[in-house]
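For practice. Supply one:
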Amino acid sequence: MAEWTSEIEEELKKLYVETDIPSDTLIKSKENLSRFTSTLNSKLTDHDGFTQEEVAGKLLKIRKTGNLPTIRS
């Protein structure tokens, strides 16, 4: 399992806002989640990358703490 640093978490949030897809929609769509995960991993340097499951879990965890920006579609 890859380590989530605060810098990587901020990159995840930034990409989430740029993507403009609500977390429920993003997580439920394999195509959207795959694209999102690939984009996130491509932005990370010196890092092995995260799986789709790790990214989905982190998005849910951040949302539950109230720290995920709200996106309305």
